[in-house]
Amino acid sequence: EGSDRPYSLAGSKLLASRLMALAKALHSAGHVIDACEIGRRSVRLHRELLSYDRTLALGDVALALEHYSSFLFRALRFNEACDATREAVILRRDLFSRNPSLHAPNLALTLCNYATDLALLQRHAEACEAGGEAVAIRRRLYNDNQGRHRVALASALYNYGEDLRRMAQLARACDAFAEATTLYSYLHEQH
Question: How many Å is the Cα radius of gyration of the chain?
Answer without folding.
Answer: 18
